Every structure is written in structure tokens, then in C-alpha cells.
Amino acid sequence: MPTVILLDVSLSMSRPVPTTDIENHTRFTLATAAINTFLDYLCVHAKLEYVSLVTFSSVYEVAVPFTREFDNIRVKLPQLEEGDKTCIETALHGVNQIILNEWGYQTPVQIILVTDGSSGVGAIGRNRIIQALPLPPTYPGKIHVLPVVSPHDSSLQHAMPLYQKIVDLASNTTNNSNANLMRGAIYCPDQLNIPGVIAAMTRLCEQHYQEFWCTLKCGQLETRVQLFPAPQPASHEGLSASYTLSNQLHVIGFLQQQDLGTPIALSKHLVIPQAQVGSNSATRENYGSKTPTKEGSSTEGTTTEDDMSDPSKIPNFCVLLHGALKVEGMSAIVQLGSEWWGTLSAWCEVSRARRSCLLLSILRPGASAAPWLGPLDQLGPSEENSTSTDSFPVRSWRSYSGGGSGCAWARPHALLADVQKVLRHARKLPDKTQHLYKELNRLRRAAISLGFAELLTCVGSALERECTTLPTNAPPECALQLAHAAAALRDPRTAFDIKHTLQPLATNFTVTSMSH
Amino acid sequence: MFPTNHKTIFVLDHTPYFGISSDNPIDFDVSKSRGPGYVPLPPVCKSLWTCSVEAAVEYCRIVWDLFPEGKLVRFVVSDSSAHILNTWALTQQNLTHILNGLCLVGPVRRGAGGDVVGLCAAIEGLAEPSPTQSTRPPSERHFQNRGRIICITSARDDDSIRSLAEIALNTLVQQNKKAATPQPPTTTDASTTTQNLVVHYCHLVIINVTPEKADTRVNNQQLTEMGGGLMGVEVIVCRASALASLLGRLVLPHYRLAITTVTGIPMKEEQNASSSANYDVEIIHSAEAHAGLRATQTAQEATESVVLRWWTPRGAEGGAGGCSGPLWRVTPADVASRPSACLVNFLLNGRSVTLEMPRKGGGRSASHVLAAQGGELWIGALGGRTPYDDPPALSEGAGGRVTDYRIKEFGALMQQNKLHPLRGAGANARSRARLQRLTTYWPLTISSTLIFNLGSVMEPLTRLVVQESLTEDEVDTCRGVLLSLLGMESRHEFPAAQLPSNLRGKSSGRREEQWRQVWGELEALIRAHSGSPAHRALLRTLIECRSHNNHGAEGDSSRATVIRATTDSPLSPVGAGNGNGNNDVWAPRNVLDALLGAPRPPRRPDFAGRMAAGNRVATLYPHLQQDVETPH
Questions:
Q1: Which residue of B155, B241, B445, B598 lies most exposed, with the fewest beta carbons within 10 A?
Q2: Residue B113 sits in a domain of what CATH number?
Q3: C-alpha separations of B596 from B562, B569, B600 in Å
Q4: B-chain residues within 8 Å CB-CB of A381?
């Protein structure tokens, strides 16, 4: 998750730390040490994380915009200028803007608030700040607080309710589209010195910046992969349970990209293959051992030693899978846990078409995350001997016309259109006889379900009127059919019987009249 | 768990009062008069009943269009008794079922009755578990059985409404008491009886309907809690003619929905095909789709409806694939309107469209995408960076510099393992089992295998052997391949001679080595699939071939280790021609083989010559020479 380091640069941060050391530390230099610890941790565990440094006092300022070049932040830290007073709510306002502009409202974000453990105001002022906090944010996120203060400081006791409120509110996001995140926390150093703040920051890192490793399996082929950003457990109101990603992802099978479409994803993650350190020998056994002689393996030994030193030269299933997915234009369906699926595809940014990577989409838990594929738990192989399998997309029965007709009659224009349709057919008899009765039956059906007897009477009269305005040269069948339909609509025995279907007047009248 | 909108019940008043006219005339003679003697039709008024049915049905259409599962609606029609039109079962959660039920109920008839009986039936309905609820134990920590009852009725005054609500509350309390007491042991043994659930909260919306000009002494009432938060009652007074738009408005907060007006959709007129006019279409979807817009808006702006401009698609656009976040279903607010139908058809035909936020200062910014997938319409939000952008190059990671992956072959494997929509359980497991089987021996790179590069020489065998079972003919075909290989080897041909020229250089090594690799790989491949008797028969042939050329005796220790798990599993039927058992007879096992191999029951006493020879190679026919010599 992208991270904002929100660093307090108010005047109170430059208070010296009481120390027995020769070195003179201020709260600010301690904060710097903590931030450097954080960046060191990311360098090892989460190189791909985006971090921004925002400073605040009574105003806020983006010192370093979001970057993966952590050194930019390290260099900037000693150059920061002191401000005036701590003003947390303004700072949070600013951070909200920065995050929304950069990441939108769908990307979970972490904020690490590094401050000096004093709210800068009295109890009333503090409560006023709590009221004015621009939280919860509209994006999913969590806020951690790292007060650079001695745990026994009285100002900390005073500021604690404020910090707690910030942490609580931040997790209480109004944005429901993303999974609930683990809550943020307050990390107080045990003592006010360098080791103290470093220990506090390390605790924070270990709890919230864990990398996520798992095994990607496709039958007996497998590889260790890292997912970035680390997936979060999925749980929200709509789900009846909480879902946590298992550490084994099983490929179930494959689909053409156009069949797959875009299922409802909760989040997307890069799949980064890990060098096969532990299982290296096993891999070799699997594929190398088919050169059974001792000479064979020894000649190969030279190359393998070479390979061992460079993981990029050891075949990795992940790279093969990516290549094949790309060439075939396919995606893999992956089982993430019980009743939970994801998709693996080759993906590249539009702007860098050549740099392609493997992307895991974590779908909404449950079998219905891609309704056009049918229930995901029922995706299976085609039987080798049977050819008649259903194909994609599994069509839904959705018609977007209001379940036939009638339900949309709440809007007068819809009712008018349906009645006009009947009358149009009535004017084009005898050619449209079948159409007229089809439409009449449709209209009747809708009217019966709505208990709309008045409509049938009215349409009956309209048909009679059409009868009277027939041109003189009209075939006699027209008048007969119109009269028949009008009477049928008003027949008290059958008009409201849903099982009854209006039939055209069965007559050979036309034939006889013609022949005479 | 289980929000209030999981279960909704409509109670429709079907008493004689609802047979009266809504006094809102609809004129059908909109077209201009057609000359003299053309008698205009009298305008038609819907009854209160028709108004309430069509409004409730429209509410349902929106819910079911957007939530094909998980949001359930039931109908209870109340007159002298309660007519329950559907249950919580998924098969009865559709408009066709409801409309059929309404046909049977028919128009309002004379007779007594009221809304109370229906309301009580509805409260009982809330206690019945929905299909998803019955899959979970009610003792679960977050199990909340909540629901909403929308009662469309007409009361005399506020007092009658109040007493209606009180009756509902009393029924609810009584019923909860009954549900909370454990069932008597006589009924619990019958597993078919469904235990009624305690209702934790009921949102009762009473809509008081009146004809156009009638006075009413019922007043609107904000949501009020009753029974200590057990029930929330809301009263809304409404003219029958406005009922549909009222419910169309209420459905939004009930399901957290929002309306987007898509503006400026260019459409050709039938009469005037050369020009196009612009139309607006209102669509309904989850309110979450607007979260991004709301995030940057002030409170004032947020109350306004969202208008997004149609961005005429250019050529092949990305469709919904451009959204990095979730998608939400969309349904038109007015299904019957022509512009709605045009938009729906445009999307269902596979086109997608981008919507943009109209900006005062000019400049365009795409905000949403509309697209159809699987015959349904979806909206997705665009914009925002993704935390995974600028990914590290695969070529610099693990395995990135290997250039001879068997990509084409893996592509073929993927095609072979395409998924299909099946019916019934276990489909996923079958597919996984199949992948498991097909990847048992699957070298990742071209340089690590010979047999898969040999093409026509090997072809039917490598294709057939991965099947679950082999017919007699197929075994014979495979045998033929093995024998022809044997022939090639005895003619001292290089197996690599069969390789495509670009690969030939890579597999260097002596001829014997290459053949050893071929036989070794073949054995690994066949062993990996030796689940069926036919496979085992083939394996025996292979081992015969190998031993014929004395390869088997070389006893490569690492060879068998991976493969053994599949062949020597305790599940392999004993005596069904165990490959290694045969191996025993033909060639001695080396120490590692013997240690790793599963103990097997001795099938027959070992060859006497070998027993005598101990660890040395047993001599065949030791007395032969003697026998020949003696007659002399």
C-alpha cells in the first residue's frame, strides 16, 4: 500500500532530548532515525512500495512526492525547515487531498503520523480537534501514530485520546468497495532515545509491512511467488464470512481472455517469482536427472553451478506461465481459498507495452464473481470423449425490458406505447391479424397481473371505434376480427382468465367472399 | 452479517377500498383527432390496487436486476386472508413468478378483510430463514436476522396507523419469544422442519395511499424506533399516481444505490437518419460507483444527481478491462423508454463507452466505463494510479534470463485444460486432478528434455501416454514407438539427428549418453502415468527395451526418486504388474532403490541362481558347459 509519512516539523519537535550521551538529540533527529529505519525495512521487504514525505506544522507541505527512490526521502530529511505549531487536522485534510489526487479512492493507503506526543492545545482545544478531524477518509486506509515522546510524559497522556480517535476513525472507512483493512495502531517508544524509536518503528513495520509469499501451483509444477501489494483479507457487509488468502494458489484451468472478460475484482497484485533457493535441488532432480550417467550430471554440473549463482538463469515456472498466457491470449483461474477464486493474466501497462508481468486479480469471494462464467465452482475440464459442452458466456436471463411488459406501465408513456402498438396493428388488418392478437394477449396478460380491468374495457372500445372508421373498401374480415377482439376483451367469463388465450376469429369467410 | 435489505416483504392491501379509482386519468388519444365523426375515448384511471402493484413490481425489477442473488423480496397480498405469492427460495425470486401469482390473485373483490392479516404473515415470513441463512448456524456471533416490510395500505388516521404498527410489534415480540425457546424434542428430530429465526430488527415502511383528490388524516412520520430498537417504523403519505416514483426513490437508500444521468448520447432518428439528436438516459447502480466523485465533492455538490457525459467511443477501446477496481451492475431507471433501449442494445452488442465528468474549465477526464459482459450491464470507475504500476521486469527476476522455455508446449497444455461451465459438484477438483496428471513429468525448458523435442519419432507415445487409460491398440502403438527407437539405437543413429536443425547443436554429448537420456526420460514419463494396467504393461515393455540395451542395469540413483511416489504408492494394486517388481527379476536393484522402495510381499521365490550368487551377478545355466562336456 502506498504510504504517506506525515512528519511533524513544529517548533516543539526541536526540543532537545534529555540524555546522558555526548550526542545531542532533538525529537526531530529521533524522528529522522525512525523514518530511516522504516525506509531501510522497505528496501529489504517492500522495494515496490510508494512512499511520500509530507511535513506539517500549522500548514502542510509535500516534501517528497510518492516515489520508490527512498534515498530522495533520506536526503530530504536533514534539509527540512522548522515550522510553528502542531496542527493535526489541517495536515490530515491536506493528506486526504494528496491521496485522492494521486491514488483515487480505491487504493488502500497507509499514513504514518510522526509527531511529538503533544496535541499543542488544552483539553477543550483537543476535543475541538477531535470534532474537526477530516475522518474517516473517503479512501480505504489506516493511520499509525508514532509519538516521539517518553512513555511517562504527561503530555502524551493528554494527547492519547486524540491519537486513539485518529486511529479508530481512519479504519472506519465509509468506502465499502474495498476489503476491511487491519486497523492502524499507536506505536509509543519504550524510552525516548534512538534505540527506543527504532524499536517502535520496527514493530510497526513488522506488523503492517509484511511481504506476502505463497506458492503458485499448477498441477505438479510450482514456484514460490511474492504478491505485491500484499493482499488483505476480504470481509465486508455483503459477505457472510471473512476470507483470508491461503498460502497456496492452485491453478484450476485456463480460459481465453475474451471469455473471461473482466470479473469483479477486489484488488490486483503483481506476481513476482522468487529464486528457488530451497527447492533448487528438487527442481534439478525433476528435470536434470534424466541424464542418468555420472558423466552426464558432471558435465551439467558446471552449468548448474553457474545457474545456482544467478537465479535468473534457473528455469522458473512463473516465467513460463507468463509467456504461455501471453502467447495464447489466455488467463488462468486460480483457487485462492475455499469459495474464493482469482485470475492470473499477463498484463502490461499501456505506456510500457514491452514490460509485461503476471497479474493476479483477486475476485469477490463466492462463486458468482463472474456470472458470465457460471458458478466458478462448477468450472471444469471438458470430458475427453464428450463434445457437447456449454460454452461461454453463460447467458443470464436478464432482458432489461421489465420482465416482458406491464411492469413499466407506472410511466404513462410506456402504457401509451403498448396501447398504440395494438391500435397500429388493428388499422392494418387483415395482414396483421396474428400480430394484433399476439399484442392483445400480451397486453391482457399484463393488465390481468396488475388488476387493470379498466384498460381492457378501454382497448375494447378503441377497437370498436376502429371498426366504425374502417374505409368502405376494407375487406369484411377486418370488421369481424375487430368486433370479435373487442367482444372478447369485455367478455366477463374469459377476459380476466389468465389461462384463456384470445384467438383470431376462425373463419373461412375470406375465401368464400373472394370466390363469389 | 445479513443486512436489513437481505429480506424485504411487500404487503399489498387488496381490500375493496383499493378497487377505487386513483382519479388520475390517462388519455390514450394523444394523437391528433382523425377527422370528423371520430369519437374520443374516455380517459382511463388506474385503481389504487393497480398503482400499488405496478410500483412494487418496479421496485423489485430494480432490485433483482442489480442483485441476482442475496437480496430477496417477497409479496404478501392481504384481504380476508394473507396470500403469500412466493417464498425465499431462489427459484421464486423473479418477476415472472410474482406476476403469475398476481394474475391468480386477480382484481379487488368485494368482501371484508384488511392489512393486518398480511402484515402478520409478513412478520412470520421474516422469521423464516433465507437459503443463505439456513446454511449458517444462527448461533454464529454476527448472525443478524433483519428485514424490511413495505406495507402499502390506506388508513383512516394516524391512530389506525399507530395501532397497525403496535400490532406488528406485538406479533414480532410474541414470535421472537417462540423462536427463542428451544423447540420441543418431538420436533427437533425431524430435520426437515425449519427452525424459525429470531428477528433482530424489522424496518416497517407504511405507505398510506390515497386517490388524487381525497383528503387524508394520516401524516408523514420519520423513522421511529419501537420496542427498544426491535422495530423502526416510518410512515409516508402518497398519492396513488406518485406511488411508483416514491418507491423508485425509496429503493435507492434501501440498497445504497445511486442514479447517474448519462447525457449527450447521440442517436439517429428513424425518420431523419442523416442527423442525430442527443438524449439522456438515467441508469441505476450501486452508490459505491460514485464514491470517487463524491470524495472530491463538497457536501452541497454531493446531494445533486450525477450527470456524466457520453464520450463517443473511438475504435476498439479497452472496455471494462481498464478498471482496476470492482464493477457494479447497472439497470436503466426507465426500461420502457426508447433511449434506454438504444443504450442497452448498444452495450449488449459488445460496445463499451467511457463516461466523462463535464468540467467547467474544459479539458476531459474519463470517470467511468459502461460495458456489457455475459448479457448484463456493468459500470466501473476509472482513474487513480495503481500501487502495482511500473512493475519490475520479469526478465530481471528469477528465471528471467532463461530463453528456452517450452512456451508453445505449455500453451498446448493450457488449451487442453480449458475450463468449461459444467453442472454439479467437483468440477474444480476434476480439473485440478487432470492438471496434476498432465504435469507429472513436464520439463520446463527445451534443453532439459530430449524426448519432447523428437517430434514425429516420439509423437503418438508422448501424446497417448498422458491419457488416463490406454486401449490395447494404443498400447501397441506405443510399443511400436519404443521398438522403432530400439531399432534406431541398434543402428547407431543419433537421437539428436531427429531434432529440428536449430536444436541439434544444443544437445551435444555422446551418442550413448543421448540414448541413455531418451530411455531415462521415457521411463520417467511412463512411470509418472503408470496408474492403469495398460500403462504398467507399457512400462514393462519399456524396461525390457532398456535392459535389452543394458541401460537399466546402470542403476541411476536419482532417477527413480521423484517418480517412485506415483508408482510405488501403497494404493497401487498389488500384483497388477508392478513395474519395479519386474525390474527385480530382470535386473538387480541397487542399494538406494532397495532402501527407498516400498516393501512388497514376495510374489515368488527368487531365482535359485541369484540366491546362491549373493551379491555377485548370477550365472545362468552354470551346469550347461558341464552337461555338454560330459557325454564326451
A1: B598
A2: 3.40.50.410
A3: 11, 12, 12
A4: 417-420, 427, 430-431, 434
